[in-house]
Amino acid sequence: MDRTAALDLLTRYYAAFNAGDWAGMLDCLDDGVVHDLNQGASQHGKGAFRVFLAHMERCYRERLDGIVLMASDDGTRGAAEFVVHGEYLSTDEGLPVAAGQTYQLPAGAFFAIADAKITRVTVYYNLADWTAQVGG
Question: How far apart are CA 117 and CA 13, in angstroms?
Fold first, then answer.
């Protein structure tokens, strides 16, 4: 895989996210994907990622814009920077009470890629900024 193929993979991944196409996102992932949660534990496997997506769909409605993608020349690493526009739909455990609050949050992600699939996803955003925006 080269840089162009890696960028194509990440483009498909984020297009699926913005379309709410969880099957399309999952199709971009390796079966053994490692998902490093922001300020949380790592989850392992496509099944765990599927559960994560269902949880996110229940608690949040999000779309991303200003997406900038980067990839290494050999296509084994990638990164993304974007702005999350969201609505807090249902109270997430340990977080402020949800009441439909909206938020806008810069975020970034790092990826490992092998055999034309994403093998690691690591997402970062400022939780304190999000909490302040939703009134926590």
Answer: 10
Q: Which two tokens stand for residue 110?
A: 């790092």
Residue 84 is which amino acid? V
52 has a pLDDT exceeding 90? yes
What span, in angstroms and rounded, lies between the C-alpha atoms of 70 and 9? 11
The rounded Cα 125 to chain-centroid distance in angstroms is 10
**What is the pTM for the complete model shown?**
0.95
Query: Strand 60-71's sheet: what is its strand order?
Result: 42-44, 29-36, 117-125, 102-114, 77-88, 60-71
pLDDT bin (cut points 50, 70, 90) of residue 40 is confident
Assess if CATH 3.10.450.50 describes domain 3-133. Answer: yes
Q: Is 57 left (phi over 0), alpha (psi -120 to 50) or beta?
A: alpha
For residues 61, 64, 69, 75, the Cα torsion angle rounded to the nearest 10 degrees is: 20
C-alpha to C-alpha distance for 56 and 65, rounded to whole angstroms: 18
Query: For 112-129, how does the pLDDT look when each residue is reduced to its tens digit (9 = 90+)?
Result: 999 999 999 999 999 999
